[in-house]
TrEMBL record:
Lineage start: Eukaryota, Metazoa, Chordata, Craniata, Vertebrata
Name of protein: Calponin-homology (CH) domain-containing protein
Matching PANTHER family: LEUCINE-RICH REPEAT AND CALPONIN HOMOLOGY DOMAIN-CONTAINING PROTEIN 2 ISOFORM X1 (PTHR48051:SF14), PTHR48051
Calponin-homology (CH) domain mapped to chain residues: 408-521
CDD domains: CH_LRCH2
């Protein structure tokens, strides 16, 4: 009796194992013992949190807070990401020592006021939720990192200026239309991400921040304020997918250095203080032929080395070793009426200026004549003094005024010719103050190298760190230009002096030198074929 019963029991056990194995094979992968495993691992995670102070219940699809039976009030880090919480659990808001809270990828629609209890919270990630507003009391926390990307925010409260310790702010992928000016008070902010919003304008107040990284790509921004040139610590700027007009798109593609050079030029133009490097653009003048955007485009082939000039591959053009870009402001076409009105306004202004200068010169000349006459009266006899007065009275003041005005017109015409020669040869647009643009000698050295490559072997150029050359380097550039003119064959009597360029006192003589340089017969260097 015992044997057969024992054998049947073994057969029955084997049959159960086979059935269980078959059930496991037919069951979909990933569902095998999942509820038991999840429950056990969740309990283990809560137990570990009690001991370590680090709560990690990420990716468990939880709708309710599971730690009611555990004492987690000493938790310093909590990761509740990738769940299905509809709100921040009130129990979490009672973790007084909490420093880091990750609520990424939940279904949270609002932030409760109880979060102000977390007065040690420095990191808060509540991205990829359903927030439509940031509460004012949130910025009473000592946050250093705030990530609220991928929500439904339409604005940022003015109270954000209270977050004095905030170093990183990510409000990307929302529907924000305007940034508050109070963001300029975030004096500790290093990284700002406002990507993929509905912004149209960047506030000037951001230029006062010590930003290292700025990302405002995928918005509707058309202009970078010139004040952003003050962001001296900025290392990364991302601005793609914006309808940029200032700086133009072709400059934005060249990177941060070119963008900042453009902003420097715009600032100089607005302040009406032209700089030797940042040549401002003109708003009313354009050349008849299409201009390039920079000297780099005009000299497409270049290498970088120490402070010396390096020629291009074809031998016809040359660029200085340091990147020197003289940007051109692309002018929008104007109607004929606007052009006529501007031309009439310019002509009227020119006439008034000429009359004013002529009157001043006439008054000065009359004063000089009167002083001379008075001195003569004390030295000579009464008869000679009377004849001198008669001679003085016979002078026609209107003739002197006309003569001075004609002289001024001639000088202005020669300066206009100088500007035209430089702009047409170098394909650049010079500012109104031609003397300030030529004072450092950079443009003139490039002209000499354009006439004959490597005429000026070394050109001192400004840099973003030192936007203005010292007077010593300006003088070296000018002397190198004049020396190159001598070697190229410019006659000695047509050479200007260094102070005519450095002190902006002899633009007419500079124009004579430039014209003589351009009138030299062109000679192409012999090209040697390499074996």
């Amino acid at each position: 009796m015992t044997g057969p019963d024992h054998g049947s029991a073994l057969e029955f056990t084997e049959l159960l194992r086979a059935t269980h194995s078959f059930t496991n094979v037919c069951r979909p992968r990933g569902l095998h013992q999942q509820p038991l495993h999840t429950a056990r691992s969740l309990e283990r995670a809560l137990e570990d949190a009690v001991c370590s102070g680090i709560l990690n219940i990420s990716g468990r699809k939880l709708r309710d807070y599971p730690g009611l039976s555990y004492d987690l009030t000493d938790t310093t880090q909590a990761d509740l990401s990738k769940n299905r919480f509809g709100e921040i659990p009130p129990e979490v808001c009672m973790f007084a020592p909490l420093e880091s809270l990750n609520l990424y990828h939940n279904c949270i629609k609002m932030i409760p006021e109880a979060i102000v209890n977390l007065q040690m919270l420095t990191y808060l990630n509540i991205s990829r939720n359903q927030l439509s507003v940031l509460p004012k009391f949130l910025f009473n926390l000592p946050l250093r990192v705030l990530v609220v990307s991928n929500n439904k925010l339409v604005s940022v409260p003015d109270e954000i200026g209270k977050a004095k310790d905030l170093m990183e702010l990510d409000i990307s992928c929302n529907e924000i239309q305007v940034l508050p000016a109070q963001m300029g008070k975030l004096l500790a902010l290093r990284e700002l991400n406002i990507r993929r919003n509905c912004l149209q304008v960047l506030p000037d107040e951001l230029s006062d921040l010590p930003l290292i990284r700025l990302d405002f790509s995928c918005n509707k921004i058309t202009e970078i304020p010139p004040s952003y040139r003050k962001l001296s610590q900025l290392q990364h700027i991302v601005l793609d997918n914006n309808p940029m007009q200032s700086p133009p798109a072709q400059i934005c593609l060249k990177g941060k250095i070119h963008i900042f050079k453009y902003l420097n030029m715009q600032a100089c133009r607005l302040d009406k203080k032209p700089d030797s490097l940042d040549l401002p653009t003109l708003g009313k003048r354009c050349l008849p032929q299409q201009l390039t955007d920079s000297m780099e485009d005009f000299y497409p082939s270049k290498n970088h080395g120490p402070d010396s000039g390096i020629g291009s591959d074809n031998g016809d053009k040359r660029l200085s070793t340091t990147e020197v870009c003289i940007y051109i402001h692309t002018l929008h076409p104007q109607s004929e009426k606007e052009q006529l009105a501007e031309e009439e306004e310019d002509e009227l202004k020119e006439v008034l200026d000429l009359r004013k200068i002529a009157v001043q010169l006439l008054q000065q000349e009359q004063q000089n004549r009167w002083d001379t006459h008075k001195h003569t009266h004390e030295q000579a006899s009464m008869t000679f003094s009377r004849s001198s007065r008669q001679e003085f009275g016979s002078t026609d003041p209107s003739f002197t005024m006309r003569r001075k005005m004609e002289h001024l017109r001639e000088e202005m015409e020669q300066i206009r010719l100088l500007r035209q020669n430089l702009e047409s040869r170098l394909k650049v647009l010079l500012p109104e103050d031609v003397g300030a643009a030529l004072m450092d000698g950079v443009v003139l050295c490039h002209l000499a190298n354009h006439i004959r490559p490597r005429s000026v072997a070394s050109i001192h150029v400004p840099s973003p760190a030192v936007p203005k050359l010292s007077m010593a380097k300006c003088r070296r550039n000018v002397e190198n230009f004049l020396e190159a003119c001598k070697k190229l064959g410019v006659p000695q009597d047509k050479l200007c002096l260094p102070h005519h360029i450095l002190e902006e006192r002899g633009l007419v003589k500079v124009g004579v030198t430039v014209q003589a340089l351009l009138d030299l017969p062109s000679s192409k260097p012999t090209q040697l074929s390499t074996l």
